[in-house]
Amino acid sequence: MALSREQLAQRVAQELQDGYYVNLGIGIPTLVANFIPAGIEVMLQSENGLLGMGQFPTEDEIDADLINAGKQTVTMAKGASVFDSAESFAMIRGGHVDLTVLGAFEVDVNGNIASYMIPGKLIKGMGGAMDLVAGADNIIVTMTHASKHGVSKLLSQCTLPLTGKGCIKRVLTDLAFIEIKDGKFHLVERAPGVSVEEIIKLTEGELIVPNNVPEMKF
Amino acid sequence: MAGFEKVVSSYEEAMAGLEDGMTVISGGFGLCGIPENLISEIKRKGTKALTLVSNNCGVDDFGLGVLLQNRQIKKIVASYVGENAEFERQMMNGELEVELTPQGTLAEKMRAGGAGIPAFFTATGYGTPVAEGKEEREIEGRMYILEPAVKGDFAIIKAWKADRYGNLVYRKTARNFNPMAATAGKITVVEVEEIVEPGELDPDQIHTPGIYVDRLILGSFEKRIEQRTVRIAQS
Question: Which residue out of A6, A47, A179, A198 is catalytically annotated?
Fold first, then answer.
C-alpha cells in the first residue's frame, strides 16, 4: 500500500533528532509537526520570521500579526523568537537549520529538484524554496512517486524549471525511501506491502536496488 | 515638518511626490504586516505604471491586489504570487511584467539596497531560471550568482509602534520584510498603530532606527487574515 499523507509525515518524523531546528514546507511537510516523537524537542522555523512555531491558535488566541510561511494563523512555542526576513534567510542560507522538509514535482538522479513552476499552467513562484534547497545540507523531499497516470516523478533528468541544482540527497515518496548519490537513485526502504518491482517500474531514473530492501516501520 | 519630527497628518501628505513609473518597495508577508492604508492611498491617487517590489501581491480585493485590479502596476518583483486570480490573468495576457525572485534573495536585495551594497553573490537560484543573464562565479568550490540590490523611489512600511522621530517597533511576524524595505526607499513612509513621544520607546528594543524614516502616519487597520486556522480549545 502506498503511504498516506500522514504516514509520509510519520516516516519523516523518525528522522528528527533532539535539539533539531527544522523548517517544514507547505503541505505534507507541515504534518510532520504532528508526529514529533515523545521525548524529543525540536524548534520549528517558519521562513517569514519565526523560530519556535507553536500549534494553531484557539479562536481566542488568533492574532493577525502571527502567521507561518503558509500564511496560516499560528502560536509561538515557549522559547520562540521573531525576526525579519533577511535574518530568517541568513539562518537558512547560512546552513544553520538542521533539517529541511519540502515537496517537489520532480527530482532526478543528479539531485536536481523542480518544485515551483509548470510553464503555461502554474506560475505561483518559488517563495523560499530556492533558498532552502541551496542553503540546507540535510533535506528530505516528500512527494508522490508517480502521477495518477503512472508517470514517474523520479527522473534521469528533470523536465520542469529547476528550483535547485544538485542539492537533494534524500527523497521519501509514497512508495519508497530513496537516497541520491553518484548520479543514481538508491532504494533504501519500501512502503509496507509495496513490492520492489512496483518501485522499479515507477522509477524512470537509474535505480540501484540492494538485495534486501526493508519495509518502513511505523 | 521640522527637525526629526516625522509625523504627517494625512495620507495624501504621506504619499506626496509619488509619480507614474516610480518603483515602490513594500513590506509585508501575505496580508500580514502590510501598509494597507498607504496602498489604498496609492489606489486613490491613481498613480500608474508602477514597479512594485514586495514578497507577495495581496489578494484580489485587499493589499497590493487592489493596485492590480486598478491596473496601476507595470511590473512586480515578488517571490510568491499565488492566491491572486487577477494577477495570473494579467501575467498570462502579457499586461504585467513579473520578476520571480527567491524570498531570501529578495530580502537580501532590499537589505543590500539600503546598506550601500550594489550586489551580492548567493548560491540560491544557481542552475535555475533565476540565474539566467546573471554573472556566475565559483568561490571555494561552490557556484554562486550575482544578484543586484534593489532600491525604491518610495518604501511603504507597516510597523506597530513609533515615536515621533520615526524609531520603529514591529509586532510578531508582522515584522517580516518591513525592516529591510524601510532602509531601501529614497522616501520611506511608515504607518503605525500607535505614536509615542521620543524617549518612551526603550532604545534597546527599537527594530528600525528613525534615520531610515521620512514620513510617519497614525493609521487604523483591518488586518485581514488569509488562512484562518484554529484548534479546538481543550477544557
Answer: A47
